[in-house]
Amino acid sequence: MPLPLSSPSFRVIIIFLSFFLLLSDGFSSPSPSLRSLHHRHRLDNHNYKDALTKSILFFEGQRSGKLPPNQRMTWRSNSGLSDGSALNVDLVGGYYDAGDNMKFGFPMAFTTTMLSWSLIEFGGLMNSELPNAKNAVRWATDFLLKATSHPDTIYVQVGDPNMDHACWERPEDMDTPRSVFKVDKNNPGSDIAGEIAAALAAASIVFRNCDPSYSNLLLQRAITVFEFADKYRGPYSAGLKPEVCPFYCSYSGYQDELLWGAAWLHKATNKPTYLSYIKDYGQNLGADESDNMFSWDNKHVGARILLSKEFLIQKVKTLEEYKEHADNFICSVIPGAPFSSSQYTPGGLLFKMGESNMQYVTSTSFLLLTYAKYLSSARTVAHCGGSVVTPARLRSIAKKQVDYLLGDNPLKMSYMVGYGPKYPRRIHHRGSSLPSVANHPTKIQCHDGFSMYNSQSPNPNVLLGAVVGGPDQNDQFPDERSDYQRSEPATYINAPLVGALAYLARSFV
C-alpha cells in the first residue's frame, strides 16, 4: 500500500534519499548541456582491461638498450648500446621519453615515480598485468641506478637534442652524437635529483615484498641522491640550459622536487627525519602555493595528495594542512565548484595547455582516484567552501576524463593507439613511422626518413597503448605526424593512466 505524501514516514524516506544522492554524486551535477553532450558521444562500455594491457605494453616500444627475449613489441630492436661511452660510463637502457631518440632523465624519473605510484595504489587490481607493470618500472630503475652510481654526480641526459631533432631516423639507426650530460656539486640539479630520489623511493615500495634486496638497493640510493639534491641546491637547467631547454627546462624551480622527494622517502622509510624535514621546510618549498598543475615539471599537487594520506589515514596531525591543500586542488578542477579554475572543452575534456594536454588529463584523473581512495578509507569527504565533494564524485569525474580519452568524445576517436576502431594513425614517433629493421634491414639515413614524415600514409608499426597529446580546445584532432603538440606520445602521459585504468578495469567491468 503506497504511503500518503504527507506522512512522516514518507518525509523520512525523501530526506534519506536526498542525503544518499548527495553522498553518491557530490555537491553538483553536470549541466543539462554537458549531460546531453556526454550521452551524445557515449560509446558502449569500455574494455578498461584491454586498455590497461595496452597502456603498459606501450613502454616496451619506448625501450632503449638491449631488448630481452620476452620483448613483446617485436618491431623494435636493440638501440643505444654504447650510451654513456662518451664519459666512460654505462648508460645503456632506460626509455626514450617520447617520439624522438633522446633519453631525458627528468621526464624518465617522473614517469618512474608515477608508474610506481600506480602500482602502490592500484597494483592489487592489475591481476595478470602486474608482472608487466613491474617490468616497466624496473626497466627505468635499472637505468636510474646506473645514472646515480657515482657519488655526488648524476647523469641526466643522453643525446644532443638539437641534432637528434634534425633527423628522422629509427632508434636502431641513430648516428647523431650520444653526448652525456651530468649534474654535480659544482653544477647542481636539485630538481632532477629530487625527482630521481622520489622515483627510487617509490619503486622500493613496489619491490619490497617480491625482491627485498633490490628494494633495499633502490631505497639506499634514493636516500643518498636526496642528500645530494638538498645539499647542493639549484635547478639543473641553470647549468645545462642549451642542452635541456626548451625541451625539459625546470620552469617551476627545484623546491617542489625537494618536497616531493622528502614525501616519498617518508613514505618509503617512515623515518621521523623526513617528517621533520617536511614540517620544517614545507612552507619554504612551496607547500601552500596555489599552483594546480601536476606534471613532470611541477610536483606540488602530487606532494599534497601524497602527504594528505598521512593525515587522513595515519593521523599525523602535523600534516593536516596538506589535506586542506589537497582539497583546494580538488576544488580547482571540479566543474561548477567554488574556486574552480580549470577549463574544459565543449566535449568535456580537461584542458590545461595546447601542447601535450593529455598529460594533465591522465595525471589529474589519477590524483582524483587516489584522493578518492584516501577519503574513502578515512570515511570523510573533501570540502569546497561550504560544499561537500564525495569520493564518488571524484571517481565520476576521473572516469569521464578517461572515457573521453578512450573515445567518448565528439570525434568518437580513441587517443590511445590500437584501442577501439578509430585512433591516431600518423603519430609523431620515429620508430613507429618508419619501417622496422626486420622489414627494412638497410639503414635509413638521418634525412631520408623525412619522406615518410611528410607523407599521409599511416605509420607502419602500431605503437600499441601510446596516448598522444590529444585534441585542441575545440575537441579537434587533425591526426598529422608533423603536429607534435597533439600527435606525439610520451611516457609521462601513460604512466599515471596505468593506475587509473587498473582501478576502472576492476570497478567497471
Automatic annotation (TrEMBL):
Residues 48-501 form the Glycoside hydrolase family domain. Its EC number is 3.2.1.4. GO terms for molecular function: cellulase activity. It catalyses: Endohydrolysis of (1->4)-beta-D-glucosidic linkages in cellulose, lichenin and cereal beta-D-glucans. It holds the Pfam family Glyco_hydro_9. InterPro entries: 6-hairpin_glycosidase_sf, 6hp_glycosidase-like_sf, Glyco_hydro_9, Glyco_hydro_9_Asp/Glu_AS, Glyco_hydro_9_His_AS. The active site is at residues 428, 479, 488. GO terms for biological process: cell wall organization; cellulose catabolic process; response to nematode. Residues 1-26 form the signal peptide. Keywords: Carbohydrate metabolism, Cell wall biogenesis/degradation, Cellulose degradation, Glycosidase, Hydrolase, Polysaccharide degradation, Signal. Belongs to the glycosyl hydrolase 9 (cellulase E) family. This is Endoglucanase.
